[in-house]
Write a structure and sequence with these properties.
27% of the residues lie in helices and 18% in strands. The protein is α+β, with helices and mostly antiparallel strands and 228 residues long. It has two domains: 4-135, Beta Barrel (Elongation Factor Tu (Ef-tu), domain 3), CATH 2.40.30.100; 146-199, no CATH class. Helix 4 (146-154) packs parallel to helix 7. Residues 7-33 and 35-39 have low confidence and may be disordered.
Length: 228
């Protein structure tokens, strides 16, 4: 079924967007045009506008998900300052938001659209939505997962002081490094390794591929109905 386009949204929001393609070879929705251009990060801080299809992630049998997601067109993603996680602020069909974009493992980004944002914007899965966003100049504090919080609490004062001393972006990298593996054993080892690195004065996780392009460790969700 072809994506639905909300009538009147473009005039209301003033967002300029390009036409959409049928999708990538693996079924991921992609846009063909976004305003602006140039080298990655060349327009960091400038507003980026584009259109994208709002998708429902494929869920396991018997499970339902309340959130949706969209994949940034290549031209929009190329204007961001990093191929890794990027904190942004903007609007979806006129509804304001703040979030962190996730890397798709291909040099691009995807964005989770929660139920509150989706309902507030008056959009549904399958709609073509107008998006405008700007990379935030200040890095927000990441949400520290419980296993890391417990490990830091059990560690010595030196480790806790090191954690408090690094930048929010560095704390985000550690959290992302810990939460990205699928296996619980790998995650547990990374929690332990994080405390060890902090104790040794290291301020970033060693050899972490933030984009997922080289380690094949990161990807965007698979859309419901995508071709296998």
């Amino acid at each position: 079924m072809a994506p639905r386009k909300r009538a009147g949204r473009e005039k209301k929001t003033g967002v300029r967007g390009g036409p959409l393609g049928a999708g990538a070879p693996d079924g991921r929705p992609v846009g063909r045009r976004a305003t602006g251009g140039g080298l990655r990060g060349a327009n960091a801080g400038a507003e980026i506008s584009f259109e994208a299809v709002l998708c429902t992630p494929r869920a396991e049998p018997g499970r339902r998900v309340s959130w949706a997601f969209l994949v940034l067109p290549h031209g929009a993603s190329a204007q961001l300052p990093s191929r890794g996680q990027v904190a942004v602020a903007g609007a979806v069909s006129g509804r304001r938001f703040r979030t962190t974009l996730e890397p798709d493992g291909r040099g691009g980004h995807w964005m989770k659209v929660g139920r509150a944002l989706r309902l507030g914007a008056g959009v549904a899965a399958g709609d073509v939505v107008h998006v405008q966003m700007t990379a935030r100049t200040s890095e927000p504090e990441p949400r520290v997962p419980g296993d890391l919080r417990r490990a830091l609490g059990a560690a010595g004062a030196r480790v806790r002081a090191a954690w408090a001393d690094i930048t929010p972006a560095a704390r985000r990298d550690f959290v992302h490094w810990i939460t990205s593996p699928k296996r619980e054993e790998t995650r547990a080892k990374r929690v332990e390794a994080t405390c060890d690195m902090l104790a040794k004065g290291k301020r970033r996780p060693c050899c972490f591929d933030r984009s997922g392009m080289y380690s094949a460790s990161l990807s965007c969700p698979e859309a419901e109905g995508a071709r296998g």
